[in-house]
User: Fold this.
Amino acid sequence: MLTLVLAIPRLVRARFTGRMTLTDLVAAGFLIAVVATAVVSGVFFAFSSFVMPALARQASRDGIAAMQSINITAVRPAFMSLLFGTAALTAAVGIAGFGDPRVVIGAALYLVGVIGVTIAAHVPRNNALAAIDRDAPQAESAWRRYLTGWRRWNHVRWIAAGASSAAFLTAVAG
Assistant:
């Protein structure tokens, strides 16, 4: 990791005009992984700390409508690139830094705790919510079940992304 830390000043110097080495690329990947995983953690933390609690305060009909709209809007290039681009980056960084357990832990936390949970817990819940008629008699109970499970698993996602960022940061810092 020391060679990666030594490569960082070359990356941030304004007058860097030389060719990038593999070490420079790996160092850049680590720095981007630290930031990207922290950003993902922040997005999910926002949902856990105030978005979902605010939706839970709404009438089920309104909460369902708002969350259905959020779920449609989230599947756009900006968010999907952040979420899954970060997954690709953490996998690449995990392979490049395989000898350091902090790097492997950082990659595993993101890939399992964020991507795995998204695929296994959130996508099925979001698909089920999309099929709910917000005016149906069972909408209230379905909304409460959705909120409980979605929030629980979202806490896992923001914590995993934040821990992933911390693991990468400690690896970069030596």
In short: The chain has a mean pLDDT of 90. The two ends are 6 Å apart (CA to CA). Helices lie at 2-12, 22-56, 60-74, 77-96, 101-130, 139-173. The CA atoms of residues 29 and 92 lie 8 Å apart.
